[in-house]
Design goal:
There is one protein chain. By secondary structure, the protein is mainly α. It has helices spanning 11-22, 25-37, 41-69, 73-81, 91-122, 126-129, 134-139, 142-161, 164-191, 197-204, 213-227, 233-239, 247-277, 289-301, 305-339, 343-363, 378-406, 408-415, 425-451. The N and C termini lie far apart (53 Å).
Length: 457
Amino acid sequence: MNKKRSAFSGKIGYVLSAAGASVGLGNIWRFPYLAAKYGGGIFLLVYIILALTFGYTMIVAESALGRMTRKSPVGAFRSFAKGKKVGWLSFGGWINAIIPVLIVPYYSVIGGWVIKYLVEYVKGNSQKLATDGYFSEFISNGVSTEVCFLVFALFTIGIIYAGVRNGVERVSKFMMPILVFLSILITIYSVTRPGALEGVKYFLIPNPENFSWMTVVAAMGQMFYSLSIAMGILVTFGSYMKKDVSIEGSTTNVEIFDTAIAIMAGLMIIPAVFAFSGGNPDTLQAGPSLMFITIPKVFASMGLGTPVGILFFVLVLCAALTSSIALTESAVSTFQDELKWCRQKSTLVVGVIMIVLGSLSSLGYGPLGFVKIIGMQFLDFFDFLTNSVMMPIAALATCLLVSRVIGVKKIEEEVMLEGGSFKRKRIFNFMIKYLCPIFAVVILLSSVANAFGWISM
């Protein structure tokens, strides 16, 4: 007897859960430093254009694929590719399914770092967090990083154990409004600092002189992080979507939500760092260290540094949790569908995998620092493998499955069920057939070439 599949309660449940999946650490720290590095306002303009075309197309395709089949990525791909000349495309489902299993462990390690910083701010240690060497000393301490990682991981597992409506949806409905409120609050504080106006101008006003091909490549890469494309999440969440919920309408809501948070993240960080550095954009190009090294220094130099630091890291923690919940849910859904396990057993097994792989990343800068894979520590390797290699391949497989096997006509029928609209149908058809596959290949080749030092990004 087949058990009835879990489902979101309605459009709000889906939109907030999908937006929660999208709004994560990639928005809060990755978007601002990429915007600073690749042209400020011109990067933002390119990103918004891509969100309305590339991002829109992939969200609609993956959501429709999930809802059509009522299955997680492996089953969804197999439903159409199995037994045909394109049976090899079934591997796309497996890649989509494996990606969350590999991402959520190291993502939870970074979530643990966020918890550590939040606790220190609450304890009033904002000046200590701003000292040189604090972050590297912390992550090299195996015990401290492992404890913080386990707290974050176990909290995520507990939410997933509770189910789709009682866990994923309920937490998203609670956390997303908090995230929006804190984003607005910190943005207002940041843009009103003395000297912050130059940062606002740099971020919001496009300057064609700052444009380069790498602006486009970087913005395309950010699409995957920002919109949870090619991670299996949207296929899984689509399978929980009711038939009377508009796919296009929901996609538009997710686009607006995600882009608004990304813009606010830029306004939270870029003006504040500009004011702190005297207008030097190079201080923003620190990558991951921006959040854990530069930002604490910025807060320490400001008035109200401790309360702002608390609010900021509560915001980051909410963003990290909503994304880790979505990633873990996608992995658990695959175990349920493919192995016919109950949610509880699937969650516990995924939890064990999460803790084992996460511990490698957690200890990779400390006790296991001597172990490297192609010159990378565990966390960096898992990040490279999933984001630079597997996700572009998964996106390419999705495009080929939709355009060459399923056919855009069937996707159109699914999107327009129960009176649903498909106003951007022409954009979708053109993007899924031609541009999205090209974009995926470009991202794959440029990311791999950059990782091996063949090109500089």
